[in-house]
Amino acid sequence: MSINPPDAPYPNQPQGQPDFQPPSGTQPPPPGGQPPVPPQPPAGGQPPQSPEGQGKKKHTVRNIVIAVVVLIAVIAGCQGLTKGSDSSSSSSTSSSTTQPATTATSRPATTSAPKTTQAAAPTTAAQPAVPPEYQSAAKKAASYAGSMMHMSKQGVYDQLVSEYSEQFSAPAAQYAIDNVKADWNANALAAAKSYQSTLNMSPAAIHDQLTSSYGGKFTQAEADYALAHLND
């Protein structure tokens, strides 16, 4: 048996061809001649997920659940507002329908007003009659303040209570003055023209005579009115 030297070719290798070298980056075939099998993906066709991807998936599911809860709360709130508006409209409708009943019940109070007026009528008619003295004093006052005498208000009163003239009581004379119808300015003007035509008095003397307590007894305003219209 002969031993080949180290650099001698194999017995079955053709002469002139180099030894077989596998390409770079590949593993030589295992013994037996079968090539290596690449790793297969897990069942279901999905590649294995990293822990970071699984955390993102859980976060997305939680956001979806929160969004669904918020949507349900919004829908419930809208339904509550709708029910509240329906109840307020129904209450306003019921209050408007009850208003005619209030108006109907207030009518009897209006019809009772004439009864109160009828009950007060006898009180007005029960006033005492004017005493005869008061009536006589009123007639005398009308004659003194009329177109014949042209006396002032104070002059008429003094004439009614004077012990040398009418001698009426003070209440009767006051009643006559309060109820007499006279224009005291017109009386002062008539007296001033009488002083001017019959006595030929000056305007200043006429004014003094009109306001004198021993003369006409007119007020200052009435005397001023008479002098202002003396030559009209």
UniProtKB/TrEMBL annotation:
Residues of the Putative host cell surface-exposed lipoprotein Ltp-like HTH region domain: 133-180, 183-230
Q: Which domain of life is it from?
A: Bacteria
Biased composition, class Pro residues, residue ranges: 1-12, 25-50
Q: Where is the composition biased (Low complexity)?
A: 85-132
InterPro entries, per this entry? Ltp-like_HTH (IPR011434), WH-like_DNA-bd_sf (IPR036388)
- Sequence segments annotated as region (Disordered): 1-59, 82-132
Any one Pfam family match given in the protein's UniProt record, by short name: Lipoprotein_Ltp
Q: State what protein this is by name.
A: Putative host cell surface-exposed lipoprotein Ltp-like HTH region domain-containing protein
What is the scientific name of the source organism? Propionibacterium freudenreichii subsp. freudenreichii
